[in-house]
Structures are given as structure tokens and as C-alpha cells.
Design a protein that fits this description.
- Belongs to the ATP-dependent AMP-binding enzyme family.
- By secondary structure, this protein is of the alpha/beta class.
- The chain is built from 21 helices and 31 strands.
- The two termini are about 35 Å apart.
Length: about 650
Amino acid sequence: MGYVFTPSDDAVRSSNIARFMDANGIRDYKELIERASKDIEWYWDAVSNDLNIEWFREYSTDKILDVSDGIEWARWFVDGKCNIAYNCLEKHIKDGKGSKPAIVWENEQGSRRIVTYSELYSMSCRIANALNAIVEKGDVVCIYMPMVPEAIASMLACSMIGAVHSVVFSGFSARALADRLNDARAKVLITADGYYRRGKQVELKKSADEALRMNSTVERVIVHEYSNMQFEESKKDVMMSSILKHESSHAECVEMDAEDRLFILYTSGTTGRPKGTVHVHGGFMVFAAQQAAYLVDMKDSDLLFWPADIGWITGQTWSVYGSLILNCTSLIYDGALDYPLPDRVLRMVDEYNVTILGMAPTALRAIMRALDDETISRYRLDTLRIIACTGEVIHEDEWFWYFKRIGKARCPVINLSGGTEVGGAILSVLPIMPIKPCTVGLQVPGFDADVVDDECRPVRGGKGYLVIRKPWPAMTRGILNDPARYIEVYWSRFKGVWFHGDYASIDEDGLWYLHGRVDDVIKVAGHRFSSTDIEAVLAMHEAVAESAVIGLPDEVKGERIVAYVVLKPSYRKMHDLLRDELRRHVENTVGKIARPDSIYFVDDLPKTRSGKVMRRLVRAKALGMQVGDVSSIENIASLAMLDNPY
């Protein structure tokens, strides 16, 4: 399909990336990508300067990158001293911008707050001073909280004093929390009494206490009294209300080496045991600013609403660190996006005059199913200038719905893709680019990315493996406590080349597309199919809400294709008629070899907290195997549905 969106000349001229190119004498974006890929040290130094990152001591411009221990263990901004929290808060206050809102907050019950940069600084300092009495530089503080300003302040407090924060999604089970506490050897846990989801109480402190019974490293627990729920106090517990009342509102930001640890963030574990990725002050600071400034074009006049939990890299890169470094404002929401009504996101966009909206494809699908055009037409949505998406492959019908219904065909869809271990996006559309549906644009400047075959040779005109040939500043510094696994997962397929685990392709115009994970490939009689490609075909049918496609063993073909399909409500009574129709639909669209052997209908599919369908659980259920670790599943009841499809 051809281009469906072209940015205006004004949008291009006023963009942050155009300013960067003009300042560096670069004529067009592809020239920038080529230069940044060849000379990565020049590029990341130029980014730090362009975005006014402040260093306590400048890094060596003669040796910005050090690969003396191998590309796998690259070090960035050698000899530089900094603190990311300083660039998020104190720097702006010194510039006279303390009264600007840093966070606009709302929760499911309708409570609201505006937290200025000065107020966020004061809150962060008070928590930092309390932590200073407990932890030392390099100690790990685990944050297990709902999406409240105090959670973000806790992250910044850790960064101020050189503690390492590890945010664990508040929806995770006690077992999952305990596993992460133990792996990170956390010394302090910051949590809350509880919160509400879909109007129901979630007793978070109860889960935290259960996790602590499986842990021996945590010495102190700080409890935010958020929802007025009863909980059992212990000698370990300190009330955050006491900290915010009695501690000093000023704290010095500790001078950190650029390679000092900033945070540990665990992957969602869709393909096995969660991995603790390690990010550092200097590299992540410059990278997060770059991602927010250039990819979604954040300016200090913008209000970003990207409802991703800070337990995921999207929340940390864009909503927290990226936004704050650029002196912008983020709208933070604590609650279910479709509660009490499915149009809540649209209401918030209009009410708060959101300019940049980010959504996961899973969330888009849920809203698509629930909202008709008449309901959407009640909302202006006219303050939006950028709409973004990430988290998984987006299908064409979802892309067009987002572009036309939410963006009104005037906002670019900034589709981007990367990962927790990357620190953000490898590939992205930018606001200055003409766009085709579903493309993830081009490689982000500073990434020497490619699509290759089994011999690591470039592939054009077909699918291959997404790889990165050179390091970047936010590359994880290994997997916590498991360097051998780090090398095995990312560096063993091709020596000296990062193997990301995604299938990708590049079209005739140089635009990139993703086709799912390498480990989600089905081989039928020698033919290879990506689960996501067949799911995309199923999604084209008007009756299909979503699906999970897996391969199961077959004596003749090697594997056979099986699809688990969620139908839109108005089609559920027609499931007997639709089964064969959907099989023919795939056959007519892809070919007879791709026709599913079986189609089962279910009311829900197991998903991670970040919205990714967990095909490994679907496959395990289909094979009658143990499902293994389910700590990252959002909707545990969906597993029972797989046992009784209709």
C-alpha cells in the first residue's frame, strides 16, 4: 500500500529533529540516519548538546564509547559525571520553571492532582532523605505501587542518592514480586496499602507482605497510605505520610559516574524466566531525552498521555524520564482505561487538552470493540498532534481506525518498536516522514540496525532477522546476575551482532515492518509462517476482535496451524458458521498452505500486563502441558476458557 499521510511543511520545520539536523548541517533524515550509523559517537554527543543535558563533569570527547571489553560490554560517556534526577527536576527549578506542572494525575475514582516541578522535587527530596538513612549508593530499592505521583517521586528519590530502583508492576502476584526482590537483592520495598481496579479493592500491602515472607533481603518497607485500606503494620513498616511530613524538602543529587546503575527492570517473561535488565545514569539519560524529543517530538508546551505503567519501559522512558528531562508535562492515570465507561481515554484527551497520545494495540482493540462512530463523534480530539503506539505488531484495521477515528487523518501515527533491554525504540516513524499503514518507519538515528538472513547477510524484499551491529547508550549492561544468559540470548546467534529476536522486512521505499517474534514461527511442510501474519489476516475479517495463532506438532506436515479466536460480541452466536468461513478467508488471502487446521472460539486470550498475547500459554494448554510461570498474566481467568472453547 502507498503513503496515506504526508506531514505539512510547518510540522516538519517546527519539529525537534529538523532543528537538530539544521544545527548539524544535515539536509534530510536519511542522511542523518546514515551519518549517525557510521559515527555513533558523534551522534550521541550531538544529542547531549542539542538537548542541553547537564553534566557535573563532562565526559571525554576523545573516548565517548569504550568497547575494550568487547561490544557486548560497551561503556558510554567515559569519565562523565552526572545525575539523571538533577536533569529532571533541579535543573528546571534553577531555570525558573518550578511552577510548571510536571504531572497531571487522575485515578479511576475521579480524584485529581496537579504536581508542579517544585512540588515533585520537594516530594522526591523528602523520600530521598528517608532512604538515605537506610540505603547506600548502589543498594536496590524495589517500588511496588499503583500509578501515583509518589511512585514517580520514589524513582527520582532513588536516582538522587545513587540507589538503584527496580519498579515491579503493581498487578504482579506476591510470588512474582518475591522472585524480583530476591534476584535484585532489594534492601527496601516501597509500596501502598492498596488501590482500586474496576471499582474493586486490590489489597497491595497484603501481597507485599506475602512476598516478604519469601524474602530475606528487605530491611525496611515504606507504605503509601493511598486508598485507606486496613493493613497489618510491622516493625519494618514506615508510613510515607510521616516521611513527607517530617523530612527535609531539599536533598543533594549525588554525583554519579555515567556507568553507575540507575535501575533494574524485568522483562515481562512471555518466553520464560523474566530477565533483569540493567540501565545506567549517563546512557539512559541521553537516550530517554532523545526518544522523547525526536521520536514523538515532545516540546515544553506538550501534554503527553501514554497510559503505560512505570513497571514497563514505555512508562519509564517517555512518561517519566524523557518528559521530565525536556521540562514537559505527563498525564498519569491510575485505573482501567475502559472503566467505568469505554470512552474514558477520549474524555481525558478532550478534558486535559492532550497533545500527544500513546496507546498499545491491545488497548486500541478493546476501545474499537466498545465504541461506535457516534460515540467517538462526541469528542473533539482536536488538541492532538501526535498519536503513537508500541508494544506489539499493529494490524491494518487497527492502524486505520487509530489514524482516522482518533487522529482524524491529520495526526501521524508514530508506530515504534524496541524493548526493555534496549531502553526504548530501535525503529520508529517520525513526525517529519510520509507514512504507510503499519510501518515502524526507519531505524532510529544512532542505531546501526539491519535485516539479515541466517548468514547475517542483508535481506531486502523479504523477511529476515532484526539485528543491531553497533552499541547504543541505553543498551542493557547485561542480565542481572546472569552474564552467560545475556550473551546466549542476544549475542550468540551472530558473533558481535545484537540479535533482537524479531522478524522484520524493508520495502522498496526503505520503510521497515515487523512480523512478530522469531520464536512465534510455524513451519508447515517446509513453509514458514509468523503467528502475527496469520493473526493480521484474521483481524481483517469483520467478525474477529483478536486471535492467537500457534503451531502444534503434526506427523505429516511437521506443524499444523491452530487459531484461537475472540469474536466481536454481535458475531458470537454465529460461531458455527464462521469457523469454516475464517479458514477460507485465510486460504484466500495467504494460500491453502496457511489455512488453519482448527479454529477454536474463546471469550478471552491470556495477556501480559502490557497487553501482549501469551502464545506460549495457549500452546501449553493446547498440548495439555503445565503452563509454568503465570506471574505476568493480566487475566488469569482466560486460562480456564482455553480448556473449554466453543
